Amino acid sequence: MPDTLKIALAQLNQSVGDIPGNAQNVLEARQRARSSDLIVFPELHLIGYPPEDLILKPSLIQRAAAELQKLAEASASDGPAMLVGSAFVLDGALHNGVALLDQGRVAAVRLKHELPNYGTFDEMRLFQPGPLPEPVILRGTMIGVPICEDIWQPEVCRHLADFGAEMFVCINGSPYEINKDALRIEGVAKRRAVDTGLPLAYLNRVGGQDELVFDGASFVVNGDGGLAVQCRDWEEQVVETAWTKTAQGWRCDRGAVEPLATHPEDIYCAMVLSLRDYVNRNGFPGVVLGLSGGIDSAVCAAIAADALGPERVWGVMMPSRFTSQESLDDAEACADALGIRYTVMPVGAAVDGFDAMLGEAFEGTSRDVAEENLQSRIRGTALMALSNKFGPMLMSTGNKSEMSVGYATIYGDMAGGYNPLKDAYKTTVFALARWRNRHAPRIGLGPSGTVIPENVLTKPPTAELRADQRDSDSLPPYDVLDPILIGLVENDKSVEQVVAEGFARETVQHIERLLHLAEYKRRQAPPGVKLTARNFGRDRRYPITHAFRSA
């Protein structure tokens, strides 16, 4: 029985449904880790995670089984054994599981026992839970292979330890959320390791999948809770870890401990990677967006340039008679700093045409939000025309503060295929802009230096849909609005609880009313990357029609 092992952690991106492509990167990673004894791949890697209802297609399961068999046969060649996540049908039940491929065969299959059914997860409607698993045996060593949620509760790891497991190798599809790194390491992995006295290797996937993004950040902790290895976040890696069997049991040797992105770089990287994978995997040549001279569109343009390269980003300024020269100058300066394509396309003629068309129907009424929103909807129509004609995806730019209270025009500035700011409050957007002007993200493709003009950061936010308009005409200042929204949205607090934190009752009641009224808009909003534990759509699922008010 050997007293050393080499285990390679393949922190890879996946493409949901691309079974041959995912299998190919398994083989390529195995080739890179030829000297290892075992190489490990993330949860459901062969199919891609999360597959959602695609997993219910029998033909997909059949193809995955056939591809898994090919990978098993490939394990007969020189190189490590493989732990590959996939879906399995056993006794007519569909399971999330992992296969040990070794010496030309499927040597073992283990099934996920704990199925998450909260937040973004709804695995209980897709899979059946497996029994409490036994360890797999590799080179005489008993390895427990809990799958993702299996380590968030103590039962599976305790069972594996009682059954004789000597170490844990846990495969994951754990989406990014703010501050989740500490929760994974301190709150979960170290607890399981210290509780059982066994080391735990935690492997996570990386990359974007619709509204989810996975940060990687795989790691190994020893049985005493010490961190032995920390992989980079936001990047693919194949990292070989060295293990030694001592009198006290297996221990991972000290390896590279990479620094993880701090706040707000982590949020920025999440936006960049999610947009990159969304655009590329859906076959768009690039993106087009309205560049208004404001903070939101400037940050979105920077994210797009970092995600795709400046040459694939097209910013369009669409001035109306209410657009200031300051906004025109700021939009052009932003485009120049980023090196993106820039076009000015005035919408005045179209606005005049709609005013004339609606003149008889609107006769006898005063100008109000209906006329204001026409400008936004005209801009959305024009941008969609550019998207249709030339192929780039229209990117929308509204932030979570605006989406919360409905300060956005449905079928106007809400039009688009993806919105990187959908789960970022306005105050977060300002923080991202300041950070990006001082740093170039390590996964970015855009230029370094100041890419968002300082004037964009300091001038009062405005939609410029009427003369002398400011956001503060309709909303509290964002440093007041955002804490109220965090209370109501992120923490599900009542009006009374938020008022007790020092906010005016009338203001909080008004914001809660706007929050509920805007639900129908949010249902029709484009997808956007999840950053918080309560993003709109996947986490916070409220009825559109309801009469409840907390005060």
Automatic annotation (TrEMBL):
This is Glutamine-dependent NAD(+) synthetase. Its EC number is 6.3.5.1. Keywords: ATP-binding, Ligase, NAD, Nucleotide-binding. L-glutamine binds at residues 118, 174, 180. It catalyses: deamido-NAD(+) + L-glutamine + ATP + H2O = L-glutamate + AMP + diphosphate + NAD(+) + H(+). It is an enzyme of class 6 (ligase). The active site is at residues 43, 112, 148.
